[in-house]
Amino acid sequence: MKVLICIGSSCHVRGSRQVIETFTRLVKEHGAEAEIVLSGSFCMGACSKGVSVKIGDRVYHVKPEDAEDFFREVILEEAKK
Ligand code: FES
Question: N or C: which end of the chain has fewer CB within 10 A?
Answer without folding.
Answer: C
